[in-house]
Predict the structure of Thiol peroxidase.
Amino acid sequence: MAQERTGVATLKGNPLTLIGPELKIGDQAPDFQLNKSLVEVVSLKDFAGKVKLVSVVPSIDTGVCDAQTRRFNEEAATLGDNVAVLTVSVDLPFAQARWCGAAGVDKVVLLSDYKNNNFGEAYGVLIKDLHLDMRAIFVIDGNDTIQYVEVLSEMTEHPNYENAINAVKALV
């Protein structure tokens, strides 16, 4: 049974239980299986050798998640070809594609954790009662070592965009 952590995150002040480990800088990034479409599945290996900025959002169709993904899409344009900017949510792949088209987001790769929540559980951000992933940022170097972690304590708050981008820039 996966580790449960209660009291480390909230939604509008109400405690949430996160499932999975608390990853730290220096940890090896866990592999994952995420859907790029209903049939196409990608894993950590698909981004081998690249610096990966993994932006985790509960649902792309909410205000903070929308703003977070748009911000990283803007930043992605300046980071170069050796950086993969990924947004992970449990939204269905066709909902993610619809949102990208409507928002004009084309630099961030949206990936879905809807099938079995294996990303959320492996990265310690799966919210037990909601079956959503908690807002978080992971920066992973080209050797798949975690170099930056921010798991937000309150779901409705924005991450520290500057710190995440600076962590990526330090690796490229």
Q: What stands out?
A: Helices lie at 63-79, 93-103, 118-122, 161-169.
